[in-house]
Design a protein that fits this description.
Elements: E1 5-6, E2 15-17, E3 23-24, E4 27-28, E5 33-36, E6 43-46, E7 52-54, E8 59-62, H1 79-82, E9 87-90, E10 95-98
């Protein structure tokens, strides 16, 4: 994709120049991250809006932080990855359901109508 790596900006490890990166409705036009969960049918797609952090006008960084060898917390997926995704905890069925970014549907969690009956 002709994206140039630049020096890291703490706390992030992988940072890139914005020179050849364009913005889209679902964030920066970078490769999607696909987390395959318990089967190949269950995939959480993370788009540029939920994977890249703008640290300056010219630099974006992959928004994952290495917890280190002796991590102090069990959080693996952070707030950036969860932003504008719907997450449903079904305690009765012991299931977790999730959407990918709502930005592709031209909405977000701030204006999503939770009372609508489709």
């Amino acid at each position: 994709m002709n994206i140039t790596r630049v020096p890291s900006v703490k706390p992030f490890g992988a940072c890139f120049s914005t020179k050849n990166v364009f913005g889209t409705r679902v964030g920066y036009a970078v490769p999607n991250i696909q987390l395959v969960l318990h089967s190949s049918d269950v995939v959480w797609r993370i788009n540029g809006a939920n994977s890249m952090v703008s640290v300056s006008r010219d630099v974006i960084c992959l928004g994952f932080v290495d917890g280190g060898v002796n991590a102090r917390t069990s959080v693996v997926i952070g707030g950036l990855q969860l932003e504008d995704n719907l997450i449903e905890f079904d305690l009765a069925s012991n299931r977790l359901s999730f959407s990918s970014t709502l930005l592709g549907l031209r909405t977000n969690c701030a204006n999503f109508n939770f009372t609508s009956t489709a």
